[in-house]
Amino acid sequence: MNDEDILTRIQALVDEEHSLREGPGEGQAPDHARLRQVEIRLDQCWDLLRQRRAKKDSGENPDDAETRPVSEVEGYKQ
Q1: Higher-confidence position of 23 and 49
Q2: Among 67, 70, 38, residue whose Cα is nearest residue 52
Q3: Which residues contact residue 34 at a Cβ distance below 8 angstroms, ignoring those fewer than 6 apart?
Q4: What is the mean pLDDT of residues 61-74?
Q5: In sequence order, what DSSP letters do the residues of 20-76 get, joined into one string?
Q6: Do the beta carbons of residue 31 and residue 24 sit within 8 Å?
Q7: The model's pTM
Q8: N- or C-end of the chain: fewer Cβ atoms within 10 A?
Q9: Domain residues of the chain, as ranges?
């Protein structure tokens, strides 16, 4: 997966997140479980993109970057 593929995936997830936050319809609650999955996947995608860019900037192969486990990505301090 290259940077463009990751950015395309991020945009699709952002679109889905916005759709979920708007809710399925009037008077209905959003699907919180799916929203949480989307948020987690977004965090993983952003992390992967940052890894790839850091590797490229340091002269390493960006294709060596790997998606980190949820437990690691979700534990980062903002």
Answers
A1: 49
A2: 67
A3: 20
A4: 92
A5: HHH-SSTT----HHHHHHHHHHHHHHHHHHHHHHHHHHTTS-GGG--PPPHHHHTT-
A6: yes
A7: 0.85
A8: C
A9: 3-73
CB burial class (10 A; 0-12, 13-18, 19+) of residue 35?
middle
Alpha-carbon 47 to chain mean position? 7
* CA–centroid distance for 12 within its chain: 10
What is the tens place of the pLDDT at every residue in 4-46? Answer: 999 999 999 999 999 988 876 666 777 889 999 999 999 999 9
Residue with tokens 């993983």: 44
Instruction: Tell me what pLDDT residue 24 has.
Output: 67
